[in-house]
Amino acid sequence: MSGRAGARLAVLAVAALAVPLAPGAPASAVPAAAAALAEGPDCLATGEDADRKVKGVNEASEALQVPEASAIAARADRRPGQGVRVVVVDTEIPGGAALGARPDLASAHGLTAAGIVGGQPQTDPSVDAGIAPAADVVPAKFYDVPRGQESDGESTPSSGALARALDEVDVRGRTIVLVPAVVAGSDDLQDALARLHRAGALVIAPAGDVPAEGAGFLEEYAEVKPGQDAAADVWPAADPDVVAVGISSPEWQARALRNSAVDLAAPGAGSVSIGVQGGWCVVTEGSTEWAAAQVAGVAALVWSVHDDDTADELRKRLEATASGNGQASPLTGFGVVQPVEALQRPVESMAGQARRNEVVPRGTVPAERADLLAGTRRDAVWWGLGGGGALVVLLVLRPVLARRRGRSST
């Protein structure tokens, strides 16, 4: 660890004293303050004449303890997302995550994702929006509208278009590439992802939603079946160098594909973002696409503080401090991302912790969780058999011994 990193960890340790957490409790286990959840225009159904403000609290950020993590960052003299570029590769996002009316936007999909990452907070009334509002959000368009919403001449997500867009991404400094969409795999896409990894970028993508009947792409997963595993078919999440994100909210987990490639999870709904009407809006329905944006925001927040981390070290930090038990799950991977833990724990303490592809092979549904009490139960069975056998012997010998005692007394 460098001297600067060590000094920063010392600051974080002191800052952590101001964050009240139950002993041993993961961030996701600590309930949010009792406050009304955010209400306002739906991000994907907001017209230019809709209300510009929301009220309540950002449910997703509260669940992830983003306010506490932001306070720790502030005590380390960092603003959440400071010095981190987040390239959002999706639909058109004029102006990035900045406020401003966009009445002619064909789809609000990319804008919603960008706002989850870096949207500025609402001031009156005060409501937090983006997880990392100091991040530099850079738009990169690769399609017009999501599948099923296209009209004449409008494009939907495709592998070729995504590969070309990723080839154009300029990796400078700490760079996160968020792709809140899914496509089929291709050699060109794999090459583009490999280039980004070599350049030092962290790529984050959704693990996929259950498609509607007749959707075309991934239609074979429209009916959920036992043993189903979409790991090989959902790109770019299928690439081992990409952080694949699932949904942690029980309310919306049924919408997520079973996917053994999942690394991390986030609520997937409840965020406050930026709307096309030039104000704020609420993400009302869950999706792995919004969960990926939430993880990208957390990654930017953490990287703004741990600025000595490489992209691979940042990934290890996020995975090792997630809320799971160390075994991969086809819905939540290593668990819910936890920015407070990720900020406080030194990288050295993560040494030797297995990555997901060392625990569960890609392309297979994770096996049942390891039975940590199996040995204890096995020993208990043998002790029980031994004790039971001894009891049987005593019961058999009891009459014989009694007769012998009777003879000796006469």
Automatic annotation (TrEMBL):
CDD domains noted in UniProt: Peptidases_S8_S53 (cd00306)
Leader peptide range in chain numbering: 1-27
Pfam families, per the entry: Peptidase_S8
Keywords: Hydrolase, Membrane, Signal, Transmembrane, Transmembrane helix
Entry EC number(s): 3.4.21.-
Peptidase S8/S53 domain ranges (all copies): 105-335
PROSITE patterns: SUBTILASE
GO BP terms in the entry: proteolysis
Entry keyword Membrane: yes
Transmembrane segments: 380-401
Family per similarity comment: Belongs to the peptidase S8 family.
Protein's recorded name: Membrane-anchored mycosin MYCP
